Amino acid sequence: MGASVSDIGEETMALRVVGALRDDIVTMALKPGDVISESDIAGRYGVSRQPVREAFIRLAQQGLLLIRPKRATVVKKISPEGVRQSRFIRESIEVEIIRRLAGNGGGEAGRVLGELIAEQEAASSANDSRRFHTLDELFHRTLARLTGVEYAWQLIDDHKMQLDRVRYLTLGSSSSQLAISEHKVIVAAVVAADAAAAEAAMRAHLARAEVLLSQTIAAHPDYFE
Questions:
Q1: CA-CA 20 to 30 A from 1: which of 9, 16, 174, 211?
Q2: How many helices (H) does the chain have, and how many strands (E)?
Q3: CA atoms of 33 and 78, how far apart (whole Å)
Q4: Domain 5-75's class?
């Protein structure tokens, strides 16, 4: 039996709440250890409690919330091990993506990625961390799209929330400029159709996550398990 219209509406609303809550957690609008409730979140987003309840369950499964029966729900602290596992999953997939893209030659990829980097530079110059984070995500999603495996990026996206929280905490002018320079090296290797250089550049780019993790633990120890 197919879902009813109301079922579909609730499912869609739950997904929207998941996206909004996840964004708030990643960008530290909701910080590790913050207490939240179904009623508060329902009021915040103007929805009923049912989709909020479903969203809480999904985000708990993703390691972002801790639901305690008959007690308050809290935003989970960041798991260093979760960050490392996120990086492993991401690197495993993205290295193969970039190898394939470079193997296909530059062409359209150089132009499209170059335009994205220009937008990243503008966001960095404006100290717009949220905009830069969005464009950084789009750069990596576009690599997958240009390779014809955009679904692979969805797999990455589903498993990198812990890593995203660390990345957002370290965003700033110097951090974004370093990311941009690394993006340029990746694109140059793709345009040159040098798969080995593209792989090396991507590995170096993603390896920085370990450095960011150490820096963030030192700066915000209360945010971590």
A1: 16
A2: 10, 3
A3: 10
A4: mainly alpha
